[in-house]
Structure formats: structure tokens, C-alpha cells
Amino acid sequence: MNAVTFLAALPGQRSARWAAEAPVPVRTIHQYELDDAELAKTRVLLTTMHQDQRWLHARRGLLQEFISSGGTMVFQGQVVLSFLELLEPFQPMSKPTLNDYQIEVLVPTHPIFSGVDPDTLNRRRGVAGFYARGSNPPPTEATVLTTLRQGEFPVDWLLGLGKGRLFVHSGNDLWTTFHEPAENARLTGNLLRWATNEENDP
To answer: Which of 37, 96, 195, 199 has its CA 20 to 30 A from that of 109?
Structure first.
């Protein structure tokens, strides 16, 4: 069984540098190849902000079963269609100020954000908003890891579903967060090490 299966949505994502340099093996397939047989080979399903959510929505039963049976799904991007029953459409911040873009890490000890300075998130070369600009609203039982606008907009959250887990990032792909490749590699590596460690809390 593969540790991580990445659903590529753009041509260049099939040979992405971050996947080749990841700390765990990453197998890349095109999003339209996702089916029962592919999920049977997968422990962690990793998506991109460019995903065809209509395709995911048409396979929502398959995705629900994957997670509830023990799989981990990582969703990145803005929810448009509720391809999982618990997901709600993305809510953008209205009239955001520069301070509203400041990321607050609520669980700084969580492995995904280990070694990451929250002051560096969501800003690249002085321009804010690269990390996230709103929220995919979490269920009440979810664990919220990061927020925008002083806690009003959850950005990153986790939820245990049956035997599996769901991690939702309400913004751009994590490997595009920073200008410096080394910083992107650290954050992406944290995410993948957490996702493939089944002993970690949801």
C-alpha cells in the first residue's frame, strides 16, 4: 500500500518537485484516475487547490468510505461543492485589512506547524493573503489549528471520522506558501509526516 497518493489536477503536477523531495513516498495519479482500485492502494489521499470538485462530489460515497475505514484525506483549497457530507462552502473574509490576514496558530505544538513561525504565514515579500483569505467552516467537533481575523475564520482544522481523519486547509497548496523553497519543504514535510503517522491525534 502506498503511503501517499496525490491527485494531480494540472499537467505540471505529475512531476512536481515538492513530491519528488518529500520525506515520505508520494505516488501521483491524475484526478480522473481516482477509483476504488486506486484508493485501495492508498493510506493518505492528498488533494490540490485546483481539484475538480464536481469529480470529487460524484465520488463522495467512495471518499466517505475511504476515510471512515481508516484513511486520511488532506483537502487544500476552497470548498465549492460539499463532496463530503460535513463540508460547507468556503466563506471569504469581507473587506479584509492587513491585520485580518495575520495567522494565529491555536495549537503551536501540533506536528504540522512545528518549527513554523506564524508571523511568516500568509505573507510573501510584504504581500498578504497567500496562505488563505477565508474559511471552509469546520464542524463543531473539529479541532481548529489556525485562524484569520483574530479567531473569526478557521483556516486549518482536523476531524476524526470513523477510523480515519480529515485535514482541511482553506487556502492555497501548502507547498506554495513561502517564497523560499526550504520553508515550503519544511511545512509540506510536516504535513506529510503527520498524515502518514497513524499514531498522531486527528
So the answer is: 96
The reply to whether 202 falls in a domain is no
Residue 201: inside a domain = no
> What predicted TM-score, i.e. pTM, was given to this entire model?
0.94
* φ and ψ of 197, to 5 deg: -95, 100
The CATH number of the domain holding residue 81 is 3.40.50.880
Q: Identify the CA nearest to 110 among candidates 139, 143, 153, 77.
A: 143
CA angle 9, 11, 15 (to 5 degrees): 100
Residue 167 forms part of a structural domain: yes
167 contact partners, CB below 8 Å, separation of at least 6: 72, 73, 74, 75, 112, 156, 157, 158, 191, 194, 195
Q: What does the pLDDT read at residue 1? A: 55
Highest mean pLDDT among 104-108, 135-139, 148-152: 135-139
By residue range, what is the domain housing residue 153?
2-196
Which of 179, 173, 178, 170 lies closest to 191, judged by CA? Answer: 173
Q: Is the dihedral of CA 146, 149, 169, 136 positive or negative?
A: positive
Cα 95 from Cα 83, distance rounded (Å): 28
